[in-house]
Amino acid sequence: MKEEQVKILKMVEDGIVSAEEAVELIESLEKAEQAKNQTQFVSKNVDWEKREEQTNDKQHTSKKSKFVHFMEEAFTKIKNVDLDFNFGPHYTVSHIFHNQSASFSDMDIDISNGTLTIFPWNESDVRIECEARVYQSDDQDKARKKFIEEAEFLIVDDHLRFLIPSKNIKADVTIKIPNRIYNKIAIKLFNGSINAENLSVGQFKAKSTNGTVTIDHIDGNEADLETANGSIKVEQSSFETLETETINGSTRIDGQYGKVDSQAVSGSIHCDWHGERAHTGFFKTTTGSVRLRLPNSVRIDGQLETNIGNIHCDIDNYKIVEQKKEMMKRSLHFDAYSHHEKLFHLEAETKTGSVWIIPSE
């Protein structure tokens, strides 16, 4: 029991759960421990109905163990990704790639190590500013030559490509592109954070193995954001479809969307959903809370579920369709704002955390 409490406090420290959620988790664990102690005695009287309930409890415990095992494997994979540079001394190389009056609608960016920041500017040129640390080079000249040889920048067939595949180079890259609507932007980093802002693009995809993904004021049709070890943050953006996925890290979403599908293993999910575009929402995490602020301009058909935690629905005058309050499973199926014609289907689920539904401000 003490070990679980320490883990919960660590989750608070890491920002995975809030202080109030931690209190609820500890209380739920205490209740589960009390229930466990009450069943640990020898009885000469056999109640077959209770025996069947105990069998079901064992099956549930088995499922829970599988979840714990899955989480342990996920964290082990993250720990085994040793991303610290131990290559000895490095040389710093500053370089600018520049293309005048560039014409393109698609972008592919792939950087092994470093950070990426991308935003539009009021010029017709493309400017890529690089501050790189080059490892395993004998001197400054060889380091610069190595960087120029490894980095690839080209624009061909309406397509911009920028690549730094070498793991011996850690580059902080800033990309400035003309302020116009793009068809597709795909960004990939193995080790490092991604920041994108003020873009208009049909399809936007950003993936980091180890690093945060942050987008701000981006409008488009589809967005797919993914990181294995890091948080995801979406600020004041607008998409018809938004998908996010992280193994270890929190997710924060704010904006106007038609459909949101947000998945996490260890981390909370917070979403402030605005506007009348909403029609589908899927939110699922294993360890962490789900906190949703929903629009009041659509009819909501909501299904909420948690194993260890509570369900809080603060919407006024919502109708309970079905509700369960069992020891290891709580669920709520509700209907809200039924006077609206447009339907918004919502599913929110967490294994060890609470679910909050908050009305629009």
Number of separate strands: 22
Biggest β-sheet description: 7 strands, parallel, barrel
Alpha-beta content class: alpha/beta
Tell me the fraction of residues in β-strands, as a range: over 45%
Sequence of strands across the biggest β-sheet: 2-7-9-11-12-10-8
Distance between the amino and carboxyl termini: 39 Å
> What would the principal axes of the Cα set say about the shape?
flat
Residue runs with pLDDT of under 50 for 5 or more positions: 39-65, 81-85
Proportion of residues in helical segments: 10-25%
Measured on Cα atoms, how large is the radius of gyration?
A: 25 Å
Average pLDDT across residues?
85
How many separate domains make up the residues? 3
Secondary-structure element order, N to C: HHHEEEHEEEEEEEEEEEEEEEEEEE
Q: Which quaternary structure do these chains form?
A: single chain
Number of helices: 4
Put the structure in a nutshell.
The protein is an alpha/beta fold and 361 residues long. It has 3 domains: 52-81; 85-212, no CATH class; 231-361, no CATH class.
Summarize the SSE layout with pairings.
Blueprint: H1 2-13, H2 19-38, H3 48-80, E1 90-99, E2 106-121, E3 126-135, H4 140-150, E4 152-156, E5 159-164, E6 169-178, E7 181-191, E8 194-197, E9 200-210, E10 213-216, E11 219-229, E12 232-248, E13 251-266, E14 269-274, E15 280-287, E16 290-294, E17 299-308, E18 311-313, E19 319-325, E20 330-336, E21 343-352, E22 355-359
Parallel strand pairs: 2-5, 2-6, 2-7, 2-8, 7-9, 8-10, 9-11, 10-12, 11-12, 12-13, 13-14, 13-15, 14-16, 15-21, 16-22, 17-21, 18-22
Antiparallel strand pairs: 1-3, 3-6, 4-5, 17-20, 19-20
Helix pairs in contact: 1-2
